[in-house]
Design a protein that fits this description.
globular, two-stranded antiparallel sheet, 19% strand, TIM Barrel, 31% helix, 318 residues, 11 helices, S-adenosyl-L-methionine, binds iron/sulfur cluster, Alpha-Beta Plaits, 2 domains
Length: 318
């Protein structure tokens, strides 16, 4: 195998339109995505449509343009730069029916009002970008977390496996952050190369799950059990939204899974935050409903339910 040049290899810039894995962000020094200090790679494309999604730019697999009206000076440089005529009539808001997210207007915009979410990387480029922070992983017990969107839905999937394999060869720990909605064959392939699964449960009631995410939870729960039976390390992550899934009746079935023997080394209660709302607006999506996080007192009460049932490994936050 070609040795990865690290830690000096620079993160590649990539180009919209070329082959590779579509990634919308690479965040360094993350401390809420698994053990130690981690670099989190956010893949584009997700099979769920959570109403509260905090990364709406992750949902579509293709690149998308974000336009931030607050930063726009109205200079018109984007209109001059756009060969697709997706900016026209003196209006800087992109015409989404024409925009191909080529990024030409991003280069032209001196106000940083425009941004393309979704750059294609080869597995080698991503591995090199992750390897840059090797020193922090070694000191903290950290590594890479592959997130999204949904990394198990990323295409081509063999490139995801190759990325994991490259990281393992470099001795870098790999955590997989997943919503669970994927064929189990993909999980099976990852079992060889992943150290731990950060596994989301949005709702235990399938109808409720479908109402808020667009998808029932049957496959998600099946995959969770299969991972458990295959000996995977699992950390459960429960995004909690007031009025959606933050009542005792929502939590008790999760405790029921643990009582049946599901092995979870940690249970994270993740209160809702509204980062996604402004991003949805910049993407030109239908505006997100206004949700609230459960109060701290309520979160403590829900955590206490786990502790009282004999599962002290519950934490509030990532
Ligand atoms: S990303 Fe490309 S196609 Fe879209 S508005 Fe900008 S220049 Fe035009
Ligand atoms: S180039 Fe940027 S600042 Fe100028 S009109 Fe376009 S979006 Fe606004």
């Amino acid at each position: 195998m070609k040795k990865i040049d690290c830690p000096s290899a620079a993160a590649p810039q990539g180009e919209a339109g070329r082959d590779g894995l579509s990634v919308f962000d690479i965040q360094r020094y993350c401390i809420h995505d698994g053990e130690g200090i981690r670099t989190t790679v956010f893949f584009k494309g997700c099979p769920l449509r959570c109403a509260w999604c905090h990364n709406p730019e992750s949902q579509a697999g293709k690149p998308e343009l974000l336009w931030n009206e607050e930063r726009c000076t109205g200079c018109g440089a984007c209109e001059a730069a756009c060969l697709q005529k997706a900016v026209w009539g003196g209006c800087p808001e992109p015409d989404r029916s024409r925009c191909i997210a080529c990024g030409a207007c991003v280069q032209a915009c001196l106000g940083s009002a425009r941004q393309v979410a979704g750059i294609r990387y080869s597995p080698e480029e991503l591995a090199a970008a992750v390897c840059r922070d090797r020193m922090f992983y070694e000191e903290s017990g950290g590594g890479a977390t592959l997130s999204g969107g949904e990394v198990l839905a990323a295409e081509p999937f063999p490139a995801v496996l190759e990325l994991c394999r490259l990281l393992k060869e470099e001795g870098i720990s790999v955590f997989i952050d997943t919503c669970g909605q994927a064929p189990f064959e993909r999980f099976e392939q990852l079992l060889e190369v992943a150290d731990c699964f950060l596994y989301d449960i949005k709702a235990m009631d399938s109808q409720k799950h479908r109402k808020w995410t667009g998808v029932g939870n049957e496959l998600i729960l099946q995959n969770l059990w299969k991972l458990h039976l295959n000996g995977a390390r699992i950390r459960l992550r429960l995004p909690l939204v007031e009025g959606v899934n933050a009542e005792e009746e929502d939590i008790l079935p999760v405790i029921g899974l643990l009582k049946k023997g599901l092995r979870a080394e940690k249970i994270h209660l993740l209160p809702y935050h509204d980062f996604g709302r402004s991003k949805a607006q910049r993407l030109g999506h239908v505006s997100q409903p206004s949700f609230q996080a459960p109060s701290r007192e309520k979160l403590e009460g829900l955590a206490e339910l786990f502790r009282g049932a004999g599962f002290p490994q519950v934490v509030i936050g990532g």
